[in-house]
Amino acid sequence: MERLAVNRLRERLPLDGPTIDRFVERYGCPIIEGERATFLYRGDVDEVWIRHRVVGLPDPLPLKRIGESDLWSVTTVLPEGSRVEYQVEIRKGEHYERFNDPLNPRLAHSPMGSSSVCAAIGYRVPEWVAFDPEARQGTLVEEQVRSKALRRDQPVQIYLPARFNRAQRYPLLVVHDGTDYLEFAAMKTVLDNLIHRLDIDPLVAVFVPPRDRLKEYPNHAPHARFVARELVPLLTDRLPLVDTPEARCLMGSSFGGVASLSTAVRYPGLFGSLLLQSASLVFTDIGFDHGGGPAFDPVVKFVNRFREKPSAVVDRIFMSCGVYEPLITPNRSMVPVFRQTGMTVRYTESRDGHNWENWRDRLGDGLSWLFPGPQKFVYE
């Protein structure tokens, strides 16, 4: 294997500013060479780290100064197809600061802010993520649903596919953390494109944001009642929906995955499928020390109870999870639990973490399996 670019640079010590300028301009940051990723930082500081959430890599990942220059670097293994979100942390004297990589223009966004993105060889953003001018666009309709269960007006956004026709009947997709899926996973664009490409059948989706997700999502009876006894009947009455369980799907990521499963458990047979992305399905095999903090107490109680007496609450489950996130072990462990009930499970992993672009990238696989269009049938 050819020597790494940063090692060839070290052979040219001492380094002057113009030499470093040309190096950074030529290679950018991070430098991807085979399964090696080299992170750089340039500045007069005392220490530099890469901060990330990749399970298995040291966090923080320390950089070393190259000679007496102001260029710092660290090289780590990054397998093919990987995608990692990270930030830079520096120390100068007693001052610490954390920010996105100033040498890397590629950013990912979430409700918590933005992060820099490192994409390994083999990772590609799916084509159906970007706006396609040839794809007919569906519409989003904002509504306020009066909920007795939640004791408030609940805002929702209803997606109607292009060429929406009341003479037809459509399946229903209920999306937890709906506003975030629209903003950070480009889900309206994804639906428009997948329908246009005939990968999925036209469907109606309702995007539901929580008010307090840590309270309402981990097996919360009022939330489940709102979805099952208020929202679904209301939409079924007002829109031309296929009124059968097979045509109804609940989906969500992280705590939203728990909300989807727990709603289906509370109302078995009402929904035909689940789409669970990095679901926070944390459990304990002995005792109750799960290490997740108080927010996970109701999650663990719910999942432990389901594992003790698993039941088939839907027909099919699509699950995805990133191998670089702490939830990979609970998700892998739940697959056989679900399958032993007779539910059909399709499970997929990616070299990614607990983030919105990972969930976005899996939407094509999940939706086309649960709502296959004519093009999908051709290939399968």
UniProtKB/TrEMBL annotation:
Q: Which InterPro entries has this protein been placed in? A: AB_hydrolase_fold, Esterase-like, Ig-like_fold, Ig_E-set, Mycobacterial_A85_antigen
A single GO BP: carbohydrate metabolic process
What PANTHER family does the database record attribute to this sequence? ENTEROCHELIN ESTERASE-RELATED, IRON(III) ENTEROBACTIN ESTERASE
Protein name (Swiss-Prot/TrEMBL): Esterase
What is the originating organism of this protein? Terrabacter aerolatus
